[in-house]
Amino acid sequence: MKSRIITIFALCLSVAVMAHRKESYYSKTQPANLKEEKVTRVGFYLHDILSGKNPTAVRIAHDNLTRDANSPVGFGSLFVIDDPLTLGPEIHSKEIGNGRGMYVSASKEISKFTIVMYADLAFTTGKFNGSSISIFSRNPVAEEAGEREIAIVGGRGKFRMARGFVKIKTHHIDMKTGDAILRYDATVYHYY
């Protein structure tokens, strides 16, 4: 009798396990029930420093065939960044976050200097502390006279599922060192 109860229990357990086994890698698609979309505008300065003893952007690769010894950002060069984000253009202005990622120099002519960049712009203080916006876009740096636009492709925290754009204006650039201070004005569409 005892062995019969154990056998029935084992049989029931195996049926229950089989009933919960997944037959597919995806679930049924359902409406997302997202909150109403919001728009937030944030503005700050990004300091991209290639020179000195404590740079925030470092070249990690370059093409030996196209490297121009006189250019700090030669065609094909790949840089990694950990740039401070500040309220004002001064390096000692209040720091509100950091821009971490990378960019590649994507133009042969310095007069048409363009980078393609990916960066996570994270906020470390204030209302958006712990949140970030992700950018991935072509950035035509040589269009210095006016604003240029890059794409927001995502985000974290309060900017989860973000989309939008960032208008960039060069506040200062040193063409000998590559150091730059850039004004970022982001328009962020998000749900959280």
Could you explain the architecture of this structure?
- The chain is mainly beta and 192 residues long.
- 10% of the residues lie in helices and 44% in strands.
- It has one helix spanning 2-20; strands at residues 38-48, 57-61, 78-86, 95-105, 115-123, 132-139, 148-156, 163-173, 180-190.
- The chain has an eight-stranded antiparallel barrel.
- β5 and β6 (132-139) form a beta hairpin.
- The termini are far apart.
- The model has no long low-confidence stretch (mean pLDDT 86).
- Homodimer.
- It is found in: Secreted, Extracellular space, Apoplast.
- This is Dirigent protein.
- Belongs to the plant dirigent protein family.
Please tag this protein with its features:
secreted, Dirigent protein, mainly beta, Dirigent, eight-stranded antiparallel beta barrel, 192 residues, apoplast
Task: Provide a quick synopsis of the model.
InterPro entries: Allene_oxi_cyc_Dirigent, Dirigent. This protein is mainly beta and 192 residues long.
- Secondary-structure-based class equals mainly beta
Helical residue percent? under 10%
Major sheet characteristics: 8 strands, antiparallel, barrel
Strand order of the largest sheet: 1-3-4-5-6-7-8-9
Number of helices, counting only DSSP H or I runs of 4 residues or more: 1
Mean pLDDT: 86
Q: Tell me, briefly, the overall form.
A: elongated
* Binned strand content: 35-45%
Topology, number of strands = 9
Radius of gyration equals 25 Å
Q: Give the low-confidence spans.
A: none
Distance between the termini: 60 Å
Series of secondary-structure elements, N-terminal to C-terminal? HEEEEEEEEE
Main location: secreted
Organism: Camelina sativa
Subcellular location: Secreted, Extracellular space, Apoplast
Protein name: Dirigent protein
